[in-house]
Amino acid sequence: xxxxxxxxxxxxxxxxxxxxxxxxxxxxxxxxxxxxxxxxxxxxxxxxxxxxxxxxxxxxxxxxxxxxxxxxxxxxxxxxxxxxxxxxxxxxxxxxxxxxxxxxxxxxxxxxxxxxxxxxxxxxxxxxxxxxxxxxxxxxxxxxxxxxxxxxxxxxxxxxxxxxxxxxxxxxxxxxxxxxxxxxxxxxxxxxxxxxxxxxxxxxxxxxxxxxxxxxxxxxxxxxxxxxxxxxxxxxxxxxxxxxxxxxxxxxxxxxxxxxxxxxxxxxxxxx
Length: 272
Description:
By secondary structure, this protein is of the alpha+beta class.
């Protein structure tokens, strides 16, 4: 499970949708199974089990079973809104597309497992991506209990430079918060700070933020972030002179592939 990698088009990262934590875990687990070295159709079934979710997220198995069943019942109705820019060929004017994450979800009760098919319109944003995509390890967000934390983490790793300025209006649209938390104080209390706390606790990043005003109104959020410094003991945790798979995944930089992280980290000399 440690090496599961999530790859999404940046159109999905900046799409407008709202999913619960349980639903995001299911979607991300399925996304990490999508093959990109062969043709993918909307006929392919992706399987996610409660046992896998419990192991990955460190949750109680009974809770994982309950959450998986609830997610299965709601996922088919979840919508995602994509903003499509003109490409001069298939899209000639800017448009807003509303589509479904999945087309079918089956819950197999005795096995505590679901099987799902992604929607036909979603698949192009998960497969065959050559540019403008975001990649990270599923384990980076697996233990987060804030849906906003998972989304904000994706927004940050989309820009690996360690600095991003986000318009408040954009963040509200991405999280479907246009009519919720109208006061900045409430947005800060219930969305921004809990999300950053989750990122700092559970992900490979350490994040700080500050508001930016236009006149007297906060219009932008400024995020600065960097990979956490690995503990000295982690550098010495080797198998036959090399880091374990789990340590490589944990110490990978945002946006860095597992193979690239392995090559970089295994050159770190052992500390005496």
